[in-house]
Amino acid sequence: MLSAILLYNQKGEVLISRIYRDGLRRSISDLFRIQVISNTDVRSPVLTLGTTTFCHVKHENIYIVAVSRQNADVALIFEFLYKIVALGRAYFGKLDEEAIKNNFTLIYELLDEVMDFGYPQNTETDTLKMYIMTEGVRSEIRAEESRKITMQATGAMSWRRDDIKYRRNEVFVDVFEDVNLLMSATGTVLRADVAGQIILRAFLSGMPECKFGLNDRLLIDQPDDGNSKSKRAAKAAAGSVTLEDCQFHQCVRLGRFDADRTISFIPPDGEFELMKYRATENINLPFTVHVLVNEIGRTKVEYQVAVKATFGAKLFATNVVLKIPTPLNTASVTTHVTQGKAKYEPSENAINWKISRFTGGSEYVFSGEAELLSSMTKHKTWSRPPVAMQFSLMMFTSSGLLVRYLKVFEKSNYSSVKWVRYVVRAGSYEIRF
Amino acid sequence: MSDAKFFAKGKAAELRLELTSDKKDKNYVRRKTALKRIVANMTMNNNEMIQLFPDVLDCIKLDSLEIKKMCFLYLINYCRLKPDLANKALPVLLDDLRDRSPLIRALSLRTVSCIPLPAFNEALVDPLGRLLRDPDPYVRKTAAFGVAKLWASDAPLVEKSGLIEGVNQLLVDSNPTVVSAGLAALTDITDKSEGMKLAIGYQDASKLVQILGDCNEWSQTYILSALMAYTPQDPAEALLMAERLSPRLQHSNASVVLGTIRVILYLTHYISDDSAIQGLVKRFGPPLVTLLSKPHEIQYVALRNCFLILQQYPQILQNDIKVFFCKYNDPIYIKVTKLEIIFLLASEDNIKEILRELREYASEIDVQFVRKAVRAIGKLAIKINTAARDCIDTLLDLVATRVSYIVQEATVVIKNIFRKYPNKYESIISVLCKNLDSLDEPEAKAAMVWIIGQYADRIENSDELLDEFLFTFKEETIEVQLALLTATVKLFIQRPAKGQELVLQVLKWSTEETDNPDLRDRGYMYWRLLSSASGNADITRQVVMSEKPAISVESDKLDVRTLEELSLNIGSLSSIYLKPVSQIFKGTKARHLEQSPALRRSDSNFESPGFYPNYTAANYFSTNGGDLLSE
C-alpha cells in the first residue's frame, strides 16, 4: 500500500509530509520535485522510478502526491487523493496552499486518522468532525464520548450519527446533468451522452430510511436483440428513460438494487452524491450549432456561427458561452452578433461569444473575420480545435430523467419536505469544423 | 487562524527556550506555538530540529492531546536518528495503551507500532496481544494494522509471539470493519512472507461477501483483495460467488469496481459454463464506461484496465467505441490510451468511422500523439484487409500535408503495408518519392530505402535515389546502413547495369571501412554470394529477393501468460504499465491460479506465441508512455 503522502505548493516546496512506512529516504520529496514539478512535459499522473512510484493529482495551486513502493492498488490511490481534496473542502472550504499552511497541524491529525500503515481508514467527514476539529472548539474528549465516536468510525453506518435532530425535516434533490456532444464538421452527431449526478442535501432527524424512485428502465440484463432500439424508443415515448449504468454512494444497499431495482438507503447528514448515471439513448440536445469557417488564403479566416435553442420558450439558459478558436497568428478580429457580446481573447486564441440569457426557441448568429499576421517563419498548419460551448439550463434534463418519488420513513414518523431541481450543463459540448 | 507564519525557518536554540522556559504558560499556549513551529520546520526538512529531541519528549507528559499528537509526529519522524533518546518516550506511550479512552489507546498504538526500534518492538508484543481482544472495535482494528507494522519491522519476533494467530481470530469478529482490517493485515504480511500464505475456504469467503455491504468503501477493497486467496473447488461454487459479487460493480468507488472485476475475472477460471462467463463479463462494460466521468487520473486507470480486459473480451464494449473518442481537452495520457483501445476495437463494421476520427487526431498539436494516430492508421490497413485501400488514401492525404513527422511516420507504416500486400499498391511510391527530403529519422529512412530496394525495377530513377542516400552512408545509424546495403544489392540484382557501380562502392564501405560487425558480416555475405554465384544469378536472386514472411499486427497483443497474470492484478500499478509485476517490482510475489479440480486450463492456451520475424511491426505502442525506468 502507500508509503507516504506529500503535499507540495507550485514551487515544489513541501507543505505536508507524512510517512507511513519504513524504507523511504527523506530526500524522496526532492525526487518528485525534480521529476514532475520542475518538468514541463509530464505525460502521466503515475511515475515509477526504480521501485518507487509517485501518483499525483493537481488541485488548485498544490500537488497531492502518494508514494508507494509496491504494486499498489492505483485506483484506490487516486480515489484516496481525491478524498483528501474532499476533506479539505469540508474542513476549510477549499484545499489550497493558504488553507494547508494555516491548518497544517490539523491536516497532520487528519492524515494520521484517515490512513494507517498506508491503508485508508474511515474518511467520512461527518464522523471525523466529531473528534478532529478546527481550533477553538477543541475540548478534550471524555472516555464515554470517545466510545461513541469509535463505534461510529467502525460501524456499519460510519457515514451517519444517530443523534441528529432538525426542527424542520427537509431534503433537497439536485439532478445535475452534463451533456456531452461531439459533432463533426458535416453536422453528424459523433457522440452524444449524458453524465448525470444526483446530489442530495438531507436535513433529516434520527435514522431515516429513504426510498428513491426514478422513471428509469435499466438496460442491464436485457437481452440485446435486434429490435431493442425500437423498444427503447417506445419506452421513451411512454415517459421512461433508459439509463446505461448507475453508480451509488456507499449508503445505498446494492444488494437490494440488484434484486428489485429499488434505491434504498439511510443518508449521511447534509450534502452527498447519491448516485451517478449515464444515458446514451434519446438525448435531447438543448442547442444545435452550425459552424462555417473559411480560411481565405493565409491572411484571413471568415466565421459564420448559428446557434439555436431547441427547448421550450418558457425556459431560458444562462451563462451561454461559445468559444470560437482563432489561429495562433491572429492579428485582429472583427465580429458581429445578433445577441450578446463577442470578445477576442488573444491569450486563449479564441473569440468568446457570451449570451447571458438565452430564451428557448430563439436563434442567434455570429459572424466575424480574423486577420492573420503573415509571418516570415514557416507556415504552420492550424490544428482547428473544435468550437466549445458552455451553458446551464434549469428545469430540463437531456436524458429525460425524472424523480418520481422520495419516501422517508423514520420511527418518530415525522413528515418531511422534499424539493427537486433539475439543471443541465454543458459537459464537453464540441463542434468540429 | 494564520498558522502560515510558522513556515519560516526557526532556530533550534530559540525554540528550545520557548519549550523549556519556566515562565507562566497558561493552557500551554506558548509551548503549543513552539511545537507548531517545530513541526513546520520538520516538514521543510530543517535538520536543526533534531537537536530538540529531549525537549520535545519532555512535552509528551503535558496534559494536552494537541501537544501529545505533535510530539508523536516528531517522534515518528526522528526516532531513527536518536534511538536512545526515543526510548525515553516509551513509558508514556505504554501507559497510554491502557488509557480509558479507546481513541487514546488507538492513537498510542498507532504511534508505537510506527517506530521501528527494537525496544519499541519488544515492548509492544504483549500489549498488542491484549489490544487485539480489546472491547472496542476501533482499537481492535488499529491492533490488526499494528501487527502488520510490527511484522514489517521484525518478522521473527511476531511469528514466534502468536500475534498472527491473534489477527486470525479477528476474521470471525462481529464487526465488519475489524474483519476487513484483519484481512488487510494478513494480506500485507503474506504478500511478502516466504513461508506464510493466505488461504480462504468457501464458507469463509461466502461470509466475507455477505459482510461487504456493511463495510465502508476502503474496507470493501481489502475484502476484495483477500478474496483472491479463495480457491474454488467446484464450478458451481465459483459461479455463485461471482453472481453474488456483481452488485458491487455499481459502487461509486473505482477501486471497488475494479476490485470486483478482478475477483470475478479470477473466478471465471474456475467456472465451467461458458455462457455464464459471457453473462458475467458483459456486466463489466457499463460500469467501466461510467468510470470515464470521474476525474482524469481515475479515468486513466479505468482506461488502462479497459484495454487490458478488452484484450481478452473485446465483445463487452464492441458497440461502445464512440465513448473512447478523444475529447479535445483530454490530457495526453488519456488520449494515447483511448487511441490504443480504438485500435483494438476496430473492425470492418466501424472502420470508416474510426478512420475519420484518426484523421482528426492526426491534425492535433501533440507530436507524439499525432505520430501514434498515423501509425494506427497504417496498422489498421494491416489488421483489416478490406479497409486497406481506405487507410492508404487517408495516409496519402496526410502525406500531402508535408509536415515532416507525419510524412516520416506514414513512410514507416506504408512500408509495412507493402510487406503485407505485395505488388498491390505500388502506384503510391511516386508520392512518397516526392517527399524524400523531409526524411531525417533513421526508422523512416530505413523504411524508404527498403521500398526503393524492393521495387528498384519499377522506380524509374531508383539508382539516383539510392545514390543520394548513399552520399551520407558513413554518418548514418547502423539501421540505415544495413538497409542501404541490402537495397543496393537488390538494385544490382534487378538492374545490374545501373547498380554495378554502387554495389561495389557499398560493399567496400561495409567490409573494409566499418567497425560494426553486423554490417561487415552482412557485407561479406553478399560479396561472397555475388562473386561465387556469378554464373548462377538465379540463386542470388532467390536468396536476396526471397518471399518475406507474412506480417500481422497480432504481435502487439500481450501473450497469454502475461495477460493472465495481469488480469489477476487489475487495478494495480502493473495494469498501468501492462507489464508482469516481477518486471516492475522486484521481489514481489507473482500471482497465479491455484490448482483445484475446478480450474480450467487447456494446454492449448499455452502454446508458445507465434514466431514473428518482423522487427518493426511490433511494439508500435509503447505500453508505458515512456515513463518506466527499470532499476
Automatic annotation (TrEMBL), chain A:
Annotated Gene3D superfamilies: 3.30.450.60, Mu homology domain, subdomain B
Subcellular location: Cell membrane; Membrane, Coated pit
A Gene Ontology term for the protein's cellular component: clathrin adaptor complex
Superkingdom to which the source organism belongs: Eukaryota
CDD domains linked to this entry: AP-2_Mu2_Cterm, AP2_Mu_N
Signal peptide range: none
Domain MHD: 168-432
Protein's recorded name: MHD domain-containing protein
TrEMBL record, chain B:
GO biological process, one term: vesicle-mediated transport
Taxonomic superkingdom: Eukaryota
Keyword Transcription (UniProt): no
Clathrin/coatomer adaptor adaptin-like N-terminal domain mapped to chain residues: 20-533
Keywords: Membrane, Protein transport, Transport
Gene Ontology MF term list: clathrin binding
GO CC, any one term: cell division site
Name of one Pfam family that matches: Adaptin_N
Subcellular localization: Endomembrane system
Major localization listed first in the record, in broad terms: membrane
Similarity section: Belongs to the adaptor complexes large subunit family.
Function according to Swiss-Prot or TrEMBL: Adaptins are components of the adaptor complexes which link clathrin to receptors in coated vesicles. Clathrin-associated protein complexes are believed to interact with the cytoplasmic tails of membrane proteins, leading to their selection and concentration.
Protein name from the UniProt record: AP complex subunit beta
